[in-house]
Amino acid sequence: MKGKPEKALLVGLDIGTSKVVAIVAEHQPDEGINVIGVGSHPGKGLKRGVVVDIESTVQSIQRAIEEAELMAGCEIRSVYASISGSHVQSRNSPGVVAIRDKEVTAGDVDRVMDAARAVAVPADQSVLHVLPQEFAIDEQEGIRDPVGMSGVRLETRAHLITCALSARQNLTKCVNRCGLAIDELILAPLASADAVLTADERELGICLVDIGAGTTDLAIYTQGAIRHTASLPIAGDLVTNDIAQAFRTPTQYAEDIKVRYACALTQLAGAEETIQVPSVGDRAPRRLARQMLAQVVQSRYEEIFSMVQGEIRRSGYESLIAAGIVLTGGAARMEGVVELAEELFQMPVRVGHPHGVEGLGEVVNNPVHATGVGLLCFGARQAQRGRVRGTLAGADTTIGRALAWLRRQF
Length: 410
Known about the structure:
Helix content: 25-40%
Number of strands: 19
Shape: globular
Largest sheet: 6 strands, mixed
Low-confidence stretches: 1-5, 389-405
CATH class of one domain: Alpha Beta
Number of helices: 12
Structural class: alpha/beta
Strand order of the largest sheet: 11-6-1-2-3-19
Mean pLDDT: 88
Distance between the termini: 37 Å
């Protein structure tokens, strides 16, 4: 009896400021994406999304990969990895070419995208993505897929994203040092958008706000296409630092207090509620009002949302995001965040959970894993287009675990 055909495996590697997460999924075009393994390890080698300590980053990636290999029973050879940070820049760029055979082919589309890409980029910057927004043939505008249409002149407007060359090289070096190839490096908010936004939201106009530990990333979509991306150097780790300073408690306890008790809207914290706060050194822990904690947290979230609003206004798309704002990332899970955001932005706000995948509930239902799941979605699309290099091979569960064990030993 023949065994089942081996399914293609995809791996998303979300390299964040506070932690590195590796997610392994099976993928078949007619069955979708099924998450079968996840590995996570605290990250200490990045600051504001940029590698500042190669050894620490390599170690975090290695531990997350080993944990994912053990759970999924496979050997990981290549990954779709995320990149973010305030070094990322974006612009909208036009391109135009003549249609060779009076009918648009895929080759013509490639040429016009190359024309949009051919802009002056500083020597210390590297082109990360060139994403089509819409096409025009002769005088006809607003075309989404021009292949097969007749005409003489093909134009496009594309969203060009660049990143610091050194940041890209250092991140790639860290992944390669773990014995892994990078299938593609993907901007984190684009991956998160893939995981949490619906087609209707992209069409109507939406702003994704991914609040991580080191950066808050934005992606604005209108009429089904990406229009603006940005990364702000303010995020969840500043909330932790505020709590540590205000309550005079070590940072690791401040993080725990934030996760367990924090609230982003003061009026949602009961007047009688108290929390236990560990002290520095040998001093006894204290009990403090939860409303005091909420006041500290709310002021920082107001600052984060104020910067987000300023970026949306600078983009010029504030009046076009009729569907409102979707919050995702670890710092979006806090009580009161949606209510505070709606109050400040004066538009609909929801928390975005990953969709379009099945399997492990801890991944599928958690906004913390939005970027990791989005990387899998991106990889699945590349696989359907036949652009996967095949550097990842699944293995029998027993063999995979043995390989993972051997790699840890040697």
